[in-house]
Amino acid sequence: MAGTDNSITESVRVLVLPILDDLGLELYDLEYAGGVVKVTIDTPPGSPGGVDVDQLARATRLISRDLDHADPIPGQYTLEVSSPGLERNLRLPRHFQREIGKQVSVRLTHVVNGERRLAGLLVGASETDFTVRLDSGEERVIPIDQVDRARTVFVWEAAPKPGSKSGSKSGPKSGARGKSSGSGPASRAESGAATADLSADYDDTDDDTDDIDDDTDDIYDDIDHDDQENSES
Question: Which are the contacts of 24, defined by CB distance < 8 A and separation ≥ 6?
């Protein structure tokens, strides 16, 4: 079954890539499981904004049309086209390579050196592993196949206090707030991208709930591990 799913995924990939290329977009991720085709699209690295609502709608329409025409998926299926969101999942080597220089949160499949969760700055990545610089300055090289879950962490900048010198200044340093309040294609794209990322934000809420469950599992794992050590001693 896994081989069939992989074959379908590759067929969909071949179909989707030229569509996104024509739209000036990139395929960030593609998954097929349980009759659901999940296509995650993004703007090229270095773009000023993310995928806006119009781009998302057009990509969905074109991909759906070509899937119906080529019919690479047997039976019924559901197509989901989305943008990665502010905090994006890191699953493939190219995901880690693309996000070098960003803060990341990593959950390992097993406890390694007494740790299962790591957070820090992603400073390097290859086809098989990536390097995270912890707050202590120590760098950890982590094999990708040992990762249960990883994603970037969006760092919110604190707004200046009313009446402070930084708050009284105006101009380019006011940041995204000033850009989004303007007019023109750039501001519309940024506003659209924020709307397109709402679904990803809801997914993050679900992930947070999963993390609570995972934390509970970790506690029981630690208790079982301690009991085992005590019995052996």
Answer: 43, 44
Nearest alpha-carbon partner for 154 in 107, 104, 114, 110: 104
Joined together, the tokens standing for residue 140 give 């950890």
pLDDT in tens, 49-71: 889 999 999 999 999 999 999 99
- Which residue blocks in 126-164 are alpha helix, DSSP H? none
39, 58, 82 — which closes off a domain?
82
* Number of H-type helices and E-type strands within the chain: 7, 8
Q: Answer whether 63's CB lies under 8 Å from 16's CB.
A: yes
- Which residue range is the domain that position 36 belongs to? 2-82
Predicted TM-score (pTM) of this structure: 0.59
Task: Check the CA dihedral 92-107-207-88 and report its sign.
Answer: negative
- The number of residues making up the chain comes to 233
CB of 108 within 8 A of CB of 117?
yes
DSSP per-residue codes, 116-130: EEEEEEEEEE-SSEE
> Using the 8-state DSSP alphabet, how is residue 92 labeled?
S
CATH number at residue 137: 2.30.30.520
Share of the chain above pLDDT 90, in %: 51
User: How many angstroms separate the CA atoms of 27 and 37, rounded?
Assistant: 13
pLDDT at residue 43 tops 70: yes
